[in-house]
Design brief:
6 copies of one chain form a homohexamer. The first copy, chain A, is an alpha/beta fold and 249 residues long. Chain A folds into 2 domains: 135 residues, 3-Layer(aba) Sandwich (Rossmann fold); 104 residues, 3-Layer(aba) Sandwich (Rossmann fold). Chain A contains 10 helices and 8 strands. In chain A, the strands form 2 sheets. A 4-stranded parallel sheet of chain A has the order 2-1-3-4, sandwiched between helices. A 4-stranded parallel sheet of chain A has the order 6-5-7-8, sandwiched between helices. In chain A, helix 4 crosses helix 9. Chain A is globular. Chains in contact: A-B, A-C, A-E, A-F, B-C, B-D, B-F, C-D, C-E, D-E, D-F, E-F. The interface between A and F is large, with 55 and 55 residues. Chains A, B, C, D, E, F: InterPro entries: Asp/Glu/hydantoin_racemase, Hydantoin_racemase-like, Iso_Racemase_Enz_sf. Chains A, B, C, D, E, F: Pfam families: Asp_Glu_race.
């Protein structure tokens, strides 16, 4: 089974982190296929960034979808996820979505913990989009700046453990999601220092993508998630344009 | 006062309809500035289309925002609205948002009526994004295909009157929103044939944009809607890139 | 265009504040028509006060509605608003409603800030009536008594700035509504001292009333907001009695 | 124990119906004290009527509250209930509230069935005010006019049985509330013709009022439902004015 | 009238507390019939305990239901309540349910205060099951261990008064429910030391059970709460087995 | 990896169906361990049945949990799930939960389709317990009786296809969950006759259990889902008693 790990950001170092963390839980027969955005922002932090990231994600899937069995949109917040699910025939999983749904099986309420306050509003919209407000104990972020998105995980490790432990007590969170692609892999590292189960976004997404492939869901042929009718479009990268125009066979 | 009417679709004929309907209610001193997308899809119908439309909307505002007092994202569904509100200093109003908020002042519950079933899922997400589920009597669409997006309004006039009248009775709607940029101006035409007030998206948006300009709200300097910090980006049109990178002065 | 500013309280000094703040944003061709309640309470603070205020508001509109194009119920909390919208043919706007709906276009979540804790429960009911709980970051009030309702704005200016700034940080409010007719005009004064946009109730209401008049919505002829059938009533002031009994032509 | 049955409408015949139905379930030691509004409308059907009815209800309670142990606001929709609960020291129960809360103990979801479509919008607001939307299978009304509010119960008996039976099937209602003071007593009559438990508003209210008196809840001395501070008011009937001004001892 | 007070825990001392508190408010003609679980846990604190308690509650009602007019499941959290309401023909009331519904008639928002943090998650699920999240100001518990479930009420009296008073202020609770069977009777004791009305679970349940008996609701013959069809079962105590198998006449 | 398939009903034939459907999607290295309830009801249809089933499920897990890596409570509705998650250290997955969460990744809204109307109320409570009301297009059941729970799948195959296809159109469901253990395996059979993806409960549960095992979540050591403190209990099967009393090592 081949699963695309589509990082809709331009930072290769984050893709590397995603791949390492994903590989640690993937089935031995699963091949994770990395892809880093050729255009866009170095990391998605705001709603404006996510608008760009959504378009970029569709472009990436258009290029790769015929070569994989499933795809992961590997930015917490899942830019472009709904559109991707319409356009493509393979299962597409969002990293935030997978983390939240997995967390639901580990407790009643999950907290989302991340490294920068700037991410919170976008994550809030993602939470609502998933309809999971009632399962969420809150979204919490470290205060203060960080040095480098590629190293923020080690820079902030201690502070994140502290914050996670605090929200478990103060907000009765049963599970903590460590959110943001740059934190990929951290859950395993700090596992014994937080008193509730941790969920790592990319790891959850890999397992959910594998699960969906195994379940072999049919592509919808009616309703919202059937492939849309052909529509001529302008100024859009070729592969995506072909997908919209249904000239891709 | 100058208000940008940014149609994030590529169909000029729809922009013309938007301008005509908007002009009918605009203050005499308001100048409506039309803009049609140079790239994207001819009309936004699905979530996938809206992902493209969101990115296009940001590009359009990046080009024009310094020359106007406010902007309207003139596609029902408001692609890119949240991001636009972060990036730019002027008020930005969504057509769906303006229609729904205006409708709230005309009754308890509004119905959204549109010309094509394909639009309903995207409109549903927009409704939830606005947090107005509790005020909505439902989203209803004509069945069957239409000939031409530029003429759908006259082609479907009778059917839309019938549908509107039916949902008023069956779903106790107090107000009907005629949704979709191609229906701009229709509300005035059929006003006497539907037994509750009608709301026309672009007309509501023009009045709301005028209202916001008059209220002179300060741009946030903290929190979610302050202008984001500079972020280097790649493969994005120049004006928008400059806005993200804060090299636009 | 003539807009009635109906203050359902008996304090003339508050009406004066409402008029001054409203005039600052009204279209030059708009005439704001002031009206102060002849009976009732000096200011509405509790649910019991609001019951009285609602009946008084209907009486006031019954007297004046034929002489204006729209009316504002100018007490935050909007006593009698739903009933007024049934009884009269002109658009009627509530001050709280207008403030909250306008705030929705300036951010995701608004905080409501007011000068007295006694007002909070009533405002909470108003928020729920509008179905906007999901958009509200909270309702916050100064502690402690105030000297005079007519001067509370200047007495509490510093404390209100402080409270507004605090809720922006602590509760991630994107917008702050300064609530209560006695605070009319304060938003302009303290605009530069709060780091997010402020909304002034009467100013929002004036612009929304102007917008509705421009949109020319038809009066419902069916459903909830059609004018009710004639009903004989007893012990009610003449103009309102005539309106209920449909003897007013 | 003395319980005031305050009918905030002017129709004595309805008060008689309320008294008969209430007496059928009241404790033998309970004295039900009837009171019919001296002013207002013959029956409350719309939001506008309810605004009047709320003020009238406060006036009625102001006159009688010292002579009873509890009071019932005996119009389905409970006009003025929140304000009454602030102003007076005795327990005050609303008829709709009591019916809905009692119904919650007889099943998961209750339907509200009434004799006139005109009542539905006001009942909907009452449902939301109580926060019980999630427990309600819907509000349903007979179509068509009725002859006389005092006799509507017998006129519509067959149609109401049919409607109740239908909503039980179509909307999976576990309980049916027969709503509206003019239907008082009907539940007993048609009990064997509807396949789920019925709730009669005044009967539920009498039992809830008795229950609250037995539980001897303290009057709040802080927060929302403490008695409000004295406030000078104008143009309000004497007993109510004295209550607001705290000159009533 | 005979009302079963079924304590689904094995602690007789708690049953004694329930009886004493219930008797203090019961109608003089009401006979409260005590029953303590023969099997199960000494007190229900967690979801796992509640699973056991639910089965035990059904067994207890199966034994006693023909000898009483109504039954109370006398553990806060109401284990087995829905199932009991299906299986038996008499009214069945939950202690938590009765407390919460009664509290709704004493204010807008109730706080639930209890003696041990371990109870909070289960109570939270009970709150949601009742659909009353919107009426609840929060569930609050003392920190720290207690000595003996039978004496926890006196041991913690002072701390509970303090906690109740604090949540009234900090969370704007209009009413406080003292939750947990071991606290039965405490409300009367501390009534004058908390500034809002208190609700005692067993007292509320006794009054609600009396009310339901007086209202004489018919047993559903269709839908969710009709008695289920006969179903052969295995390894279940005789009386309950007979009830499931409908061999009990 | 060993996964317990705990069928809390007494019908062996249903366990066989669960095993066959589960095996069809399980990883080749996964061993599914079947277990059928020794006591209880032949199939769980009502809330009362579910109360019994919850206790039985805990007993089954107490017997087997040390011999497996994860467990599935294999009755749609997930009796005892919350309690099981507290008591045991291994991941425990509910069949309904797994189906609903998996469905969330295949569309916006899922419909639940089942073979008997009697199951709907219990499934509704399960849906609310999971907090997924906003994602559900409705719960739909065939009308009429069925012959034999073990064969209902083939008996009703055609009718279920028809019902599924209908709800896709009428209620805009993006995904259909075939609910109830007796329908295990049906999704694969009818996959090509329903125009949206189908979810099979046991198959989803097997994949989610595998996923959770791979993610290696730590058992909570604080909060709601830590193992409860030892509690002496009475009249409970030995293995479960030992687990409650913490005498099981």
């Amino acid at each position: 089974m081949r699963i695309l790990v589509a990082n809709p950001n331009t930072t290769e170092a984050v893709t590397a982190k995603l791949m390492a963390a994903g590989a640690a839980v993937a089935d031995p027969r699963t091949v994770l296929v990395p892809m880093t955005a050729h255009r866009g922002v170095p990391y998605i932090a705001t709603r404006a960034d996510a608008v760009i990231g959504g378009a970029v994600a569709l472009e990436m899937l258009a290029e790769a979808h015929t070569t994989v069995d499933a795809a992961i949109i590997a930015a917490f917040g899942d830019p472009g996820l709904g559109g991707a699910r319409e356009l493509f025939d393979i299962p597409v999983v969002g990293m935030a979505e997978a983390a939240m749904l997995s967390a639901c099986m580990l407790g009643r309420s999950f907290a989302i913990v991340t490294f920068s306050g700037g991410l919170v509003p976008w994550y809030n919209e993602c939470l609502d989009w998933n309809g999971l407000r009632g399962r969420c104990a809150g979204i919490f972020a470290l205060q203060g700046a960080f040095r480098d998105i590629a190293d923020v995980q080690s820079e902030k490790e201690g502070a994140l453990v502290e914050l996670a432990a605090k929200v478990v007590i103060d907000h009765a969170a049963d599970v903590v999601i460590l959110a943001g692609a740059p934190l990929s892999g951290l859950a395993q590292t700090i596992r014994d220092r937080v008193p509730v189960p941790l969920v790592d976004g990319i790891q959850a997404a890999v397992k959910q993508a594998e699960a969906l492939v195994a379940l072999k869901p049919a592509k919808a042929t009616t309703g919202t998630f059937r492939r849309p009718a052909a529509k001529i479009c302008t100024g859009i990268p070729d592969a995506l344009k072909a997908r919209f125009e249904r000239t891709d066979g």
